[in-house]
Design a protein that fits this description.
Distance between the termini: 68 Å
CATH superfamily of the largest domain: SGNH hydrolase
Helix content: 40-55%
Shape: globular
CATH topology of the largest domain: Rossmann fold
Radius of gyration: 22 Å
């Protein structure tokens, strides 16, 4: 092939690729998908590396999805002058993260642990935290550079979100007929929430205005409840083991001068009824406070946040997340004696 012909072919191929990319991006945005980030081990590890900031400058949050929705990071940082380091993971047990921080002799900061009973008091939901911890400990300089480059692209292009547009996700969304004896994937709404670079989850407007999508997520939570909130909930020696392991980890952090506070964020409706039925407060939450000696902030104990309604029973909408965060800061200042830069 002649150099000029090769050059023209290369330009034509580049034009086709650019046309496809731009058309795909415009189409996806037109469908209402907003810009967000893949909340994988890479982004989590970026936050994990921040936990060594001075205790008077930052607070680390671990837990499940509720604290990712309910803590409004911008509000927290504006009112406190304190960096919120979000390390919670959706659908996961935060105890592996607690254990990781407890065994990190360089972590001496403030830690807030969100407790969702069906995940915290279980032996499930540890795969994501373990994957994040392993990636953080083994990540290479090349992976760190790749993360920064990917951040530049991901901050501009919606279609790069693999949580929405990877091949497996797209295949799972195909409306296939259910086979006898088969178990179809959970039909998760694509427009439920978006993830910021700081790892905050925010419900999008399209979800909040779509009754069918809200009902769909409520159905998912109730299915989750039937699978996890059963008479076989963790009790007896298994519960003792969990309680004692948490105490050991909390004591390690305190021994280095760190501070740990437990949170029980809001839930509502039949989902909360299931939680309270199979994880009664006195046997789980209250006992956890007693065993660990930690202070705890339970949403039901505070008039304003106890009245906040979760649209799909389990997470707060963006406006109520601001109210929750404002009240959390007030409680920490006036009831727990925390001091912030503002």
């Amino acid at each position: 092939m002649q150099p000029k012909s090769f050059f023209r072919s290369a330009l034509l191929a580049l034009a086709i690729v650019l046309t496809f990319v731009i058309s795909l991006e415009l189409y996806i945005r037109h469908k209402g998908v907003v810009l967000d980030y893949d909340d994988g081990p890479e982004l989590w590890s970026n936050n994990r590396a921040m936990v060594y900031e001075p205790a008077d400058k930052a607070t680390v949050f671990i837990g499940s999805s509720r604290i990712k929705f309910d803590l409004d990071i911008a509000t927290w940082q504006t009112l406190t002058g304190n960096h919120a380091i979000q390390m919670a993971m959706v659908g996961s047990d935060p105890r592996p993260c607690l254990h990781d921080l407890a065994n990190d002799v360089n972590f001496k900061g403030k830690l807030m642990v969100d407790v969702t009973e069906g995940l915290f008091f279980s032996n499930e939901g540890e795969s994501s935290p373990n994957a994040g911890i392993e990636y953080y400990k083994k990540r290479t300089p090349a992976q760190r550079v790749g993360f920064e480059l990917n951040h530049l692209l991901e901050s501009q292009l919606v279609f790069l979100n693999t949580g929405h547009f990877s091949l497996n996700v797209l295949l799972d969304s195909l409306p296939l007929k259910e086979r006898k004896g088969g178990f179809p994937p959970v039909p998760w709404p694509k427009y439920f929430s978006m993830v910021t670079f700081e790892r905050q989850n925010i419900m999008v407007d399209k979800f909040l205005t779509d009754t069918s999508q809200r009902n769909q997520v409520r159905w998912i939570w109730m299915c989750f409840g039937r699978d996890n909130y059963t008479p076989q909930s963790i009790t007896g020696k298994a519960l003792d083991t969990i309680m004692n392991s948490v105490k050991v980890d909390v004591d390690k952090i305190r021994a280095r001068g760190g501070e740990v506070i437990l949170l029980r964020t809001p839930s509502n409706g039949p989902y909360l009824a299931e939680e309270m039925k199979y994880y009664p407060r006195n046997k789980y939450w209250d006992r956890l406070l007693t065993v660990t000696g930690c202070k705890g902030i339970h949403f039901a104990d505070h008039p304003i946040i106890s009245k906040l309604i979760c649209p799909e029973y389990s997470h707060l909408n963006p406006k109520d997340a601001i109210i929750y965060t404002q009240n959390l800061i007030s409680i920490l200042k006036h009831d727990e004696g925390w001091k912030f830069n503002k």
